[in-house]
Amino acid sequence: MATTTKVRKTGMYENVMRQFERAAGVMNLDPSVKKILAITNNEIVVHFPVKMDNGDVQVFTGYRVQHNNALGPYKGGLRYHETVDLDAARALATWMTWKTSLAGLPYGGGKGGIQIDPKKFSQAELERITRRFTYALGDNIGPEHDIPAPDVNTNAQMMAWIADTYMSTKSPAERSKNQHVVTGKPVGSGGLEGRDRATGFGVVVTLEAWAKLRNTTLEGKKYIVQGFGNVGYWTAHFMNKNGAVLVGVQDATGTIYNPDGMDPEDLLQYQKDNATIHGYTDHDFDGSKFFGIDCDIIVPAALGNQITEENAGNIKARVIAEGANGPTDTEGEAILLANGVEIIPDILCNSGGVIGSYYEWLQNRNGEIWTMDDVITKLRKKLEDAFDKVVHTSEEYKTDWRTAAYIVALTRIEMAYQQRGIFP
Ligand code: NAD
Q1: Which of 120, 334, 375, 407 could cross-link to 27 by cystine, CB 3.0-4.6 Å?
Q2: Which residue positions in the chain have pLDDT lower than 50?
Q3: Which of 51, 75, 99, 111 is catalytic?
Q4: Ligand 1 near 268 CB (within 6 A)
């Protein structure tokens, strides 16, 4: 089986803190606000027992880190992956604070998950693990306090189990009004039309905005995607609708390459039938050379710390659209910028997901049913506005797009603290 890029397990938090330090310096962030944002508000670690299918009991460790809630309830995904630990949850929660602020949402940032490989468990076991994790978190989550969503290896079904478990622990009269404890639910049980595609659609809207800025279009542009899950597939779906050509895909099961282009819908079907992308093209491709493939656009849509000083120098693409959270570390980014490769930063590029989640939360909270058209139209407008804001801020401060995105996000939080003051 083809090898994929290695995953650096530690250092994600160090990465987010370096980005933060840089932006705080460029914008001259209020020193008191800087102290508050340099640390997480709450870090919840729960250990909980679950009965396995064979009758054995296994104890799991789950995390929920709440970074900051100056702008509203904590918001962010739950990840089931072997790399989940406190460092990763801290980093991902912190990125959520910047992301929700940049998007202009009334949310703060949180993130969590369980350190497991879900492939090792049956569907029934995953249901019991998810429900028991929800129960262990108790009122550390809540519809007006901390609202999880899907992330790597978690999906709409799991969100439905979380909602059901959380609601079941409330008194009968309170149950329905807690449905927005989690977003990314199936459409049949409080979910939003279009939430499934919101992140990938958003990635492509930011790429369209990039193309417009550079007086070009996505038509005929060659692109590669790392990760062919929720974000990777939907990105490819909308890229191909724009006439772009998918020449390479890498996921946890292998790396495939075809310079003549691949059809994302056909690949999705192959993946469903074979539980792998491996074998879709005739030849194996050396996974360690993936990011060096000759293409115009790279969309990392898997894990963090994938583009580093080890491979950044080989990149031929003009632009990187960060579908994943934290896919480029600071050393890798310095090389890319020096080589003139543009980066649409994660907190902007993949924010379609949390914006879609916000619409789902509003839908549940207000007892409404939104249509796909409502969602897609509003999402596009919000992302285009955020993209413009980042570009203008980068010109104003003469800085890169990531730092500019941080400045927009941090300015909003700084203002909230300055207006409110610090209790007592
Ligand atoms: P997913 O579980 O649906 O897909 C993850 C993909 O990553 C899979 O294709 C998997 O095979 C691949 N992968 C795992 N390990 C890999 C490795 N070592 N090398 C290459 N590929 C590997 O998850 P997702 O929801 O698509 O999330 C992907 C990324 O996007 C994550 O960084 C996540 O935080 C970010 N993100 C997701 C959302 C969302 O709405 N789901 C929103 C914003 C950001």
Answers
A1: 407
A2: 1-7, 9-10
A3: 111
A4: no
